[in-house]
Amino acid sequence: MKQKLINFSIVLMLLLALVLWTLLPWYLVLGIAALLALWLGLTRSGRLALAATRIGVASLPQRWGASSVIVVGIAGVVGVLVAMLAMGEGFKATLSSTGDTSSAIVLRGGSQAETNSVVMRDQVPLIGSLPGIAKNAEGRPLISPELSQVVNLPARGDGTDTNAQIRGVGELGWAVHPSVKLVEGRRFGAGLREIVVGAGAQSQFRGLEVGKPITLGNQQWTVVGKFKSGDAHDSELWTDAETLASTYNRSSYQSITVKTEGTAGFEQFKAAMAGDPRLKLDVETTRAYYAKQSGQLSTLINALGTVIGAIMAVGAVFGALNTMYAAVATRAREIATMRAIGFRGLPVVTAVMLETMLLALLGGLLGGLVAWLLFNNHSVSTLGSNFSQVVFQFKVTPELLWNGLKWALGIGLVGGLFPALRAARLPITVALREV
Hints:
Keywords: Cell membrane, Membrane, Transmembrane, Transmembrane helix
Main location: membrane
Largest sheet: 10 strands, mixed
Number of helices: 14
Distance between the termini: 35 Å
Order of helices and strands: HHHHEHEEHEEHEEEHEHEHHHEEHH
Subcellular location: Cell membrane
Pfam families: FtsX, MacB_PCD
Strand content: 15-25%
GO molecular function: transmembrane transporter activity
């Protein structure tokens, strides 16, 4: 019983060490690598460890089948981990790039998203009269009263009904959202059941080609244009706010998007809003609003990816343990011979550890490469905060690849430790008699 507790404690300590290792910043990892390189090159024990490592690496082709278990297992861990985290990174990047710091979104006080916000129509002129708002060439304030409606559209893949978002924008909506650029067809007309579709929405849903009719709210609409924005608006359908309101019997707006006179204008507008007792509304930059919308889902995806990666990492650790134990057993005479001619325990331990971590490094590089080739810029969609599909791309960043390599090296470190200690404690006389 006592031995089991000791073993369990050791396993927990190793897992804790693995977690701490993955949290180390890059400069500490490089510092540890530099210290190891100095020890290998400048000390007698280090040079012996390096020589023993060369012997072990030279014999790898003779046992490549067993060694490939480590490489493939760790590649799988790194590939899945990087892919999952790249999903969260892509979703976060898409929403975080939406909007800017010189435009504001106005919501009902206490609302966390457009879906639960209400802005009354009689408040729109009051908002438009506040200072800090940019004006067009005719001197009109650049504000866009907007509605967001979730509709069902057939998915392009299997035709099943999927949530999509149609946004009704005001007359000056195109000027308020300058990142939205028409790339095909024309803009929708005021008072007409016409829509323009984002490039992401067109790739995700059927029947959104320019010129085609589409049924929404028991009414027939016509797709008259296609736009690109490079952000979350790519997943939307746009139409005239008043037409959308009459179709779905909406008597109020959900948000007001305002183009302000730079950052200073935003602060002036926000202060004026807070100082008007008639307007119980919240104001924040569109950049901050959309970044906040990505927070919960991005955190969930990252947590899920880390948990899945950790579970797979445990399996990879046991795979590395079994493989390296087998390698130590098959090389018993070789290790005993090195011990007999003067290789002490520390160089032998280090040699086995370095060999394992080399295989782990190969697995990490392979897993990262596969994740980058298969998933980088791969387009997918998921439910956003308004319960409609948001189209985004996986982002396999250098930081994610670096984290994947750290996981790989950590698995190699833990997986090679016990076999290395066994090799160092192997009785020389017994090992020399083994065949």
